[in-house]
């Protein structure tokens, strides 16, 4: 099963400028109910990524003043990405080994979506349910003969 098999990963990705204040980034993430934002810098569409974890870390180190830091100062860079034809198990392995929950989806050098750990788990569960259903149908048809 590939990333392209997951419904909903090809969606508009909320991006933010590297000069955006962290407080504004956190507010936008809350309003959009998302856990990560891709950071763009000039002509570079994916300069980094700001996640909930990055925000918590910045506040833990800098206290309340951290809300005035910029996205460029707290972003994670370089950002691992994945392509639509990446295998889900490979994407999950990347997420687990790097301890991340979001991967930008890139196709032909363009940002076309975002894959979350929840997307990967849902995709794998859907695949398991389909396989279980097929096996159940095969068993029932063989038993009926």
Structure at a glance:
By secondary structure, the chain is an alpha+beta fold. It has helices at 22-32, 52-62, 71-74, 88-98, 117-144; strands at 15-17, 36-41, 44-51, 102-107, 110-116.
Gross morphology is elongated
Biggest sheet: strands side by side, in what order? Answer: 1-2-3
Radius of gyration: 19 Å
Q: Tell me the β content.
A: 15-25%
Mean pLDDT: 90
Number of E strands: 5
The largest β sheet comes out as: 3 strands, mixed
Any guess at the CATH architecture?
A: Roll
Total separate domains: 1
- H/E element order: EHEEHHHEEH
Count of DSSP H/I helices:
5
Question: What tags apply to this protein structure?
Answer:
145 residues; alpha+beta; CBS-domain; three-stranded mixed sheet; two-stranded antiparallel sheet; 5 strands; elongated
